[in-house]
Amino acid sequence: MEKKELRKFIRMQKQQFSRQQLTELSRSVIKRLMASPKMKAAKTVLMYYSLDDEVDTHDAVDVILKQGKTVLLPKVISETEMELRRYTGPQDLQDGFFNIMEPSGELFENYAEIDLAVVPGMAFDSRNNRLGRGKGYYDRMLPKLINAYKIGVCFDFQRLPGIPADENDICMDEII
Prior knowledge:
The chain is of the alpha/beta class. Helices cover 27% and strands 23% of the residues. Strands 6-3-2-1-7-10-12 form a 7-stranded mixed sheet. A 3-stranded mixed sheet has the order 9-8-11, covered by helices on one side. The protein is globular and about 40 Å long.
């Protein structure tokens, strides 16, 4: 399948679950993420504030913050770019591009300081390739994370045997 067809297939898979079911499925993924040695060792963590059809990270960002780590969240600033903002709590969140809750905190530009990046995706494969939503936001940002260990998070049904990949696609170091 081509990327566009795979995205459509995954969207249809997600529609088979209620929001509550996806929240339940998220718990085991987040539990494994939080138990990860990479998460435990990280000082600066790039997370994402999940959409309704993604692995739910809403509680996790606050738990990571309470652990004393620096938490960064992406903020879409144009049709092609996003920037990173420091997250200091729920008061930082506001409705942004695509109706995604985004941080309004301090701009963060020292990408070399990021130890761990937790990355959503439409699908991941056995070679740790990632299929995004198609806008390329993460494809443009991930190459800047020169020291970050990259963990892709997804539901089991988002793991596929193979995904078409090209030179712009950045592989994850691990998939949970």
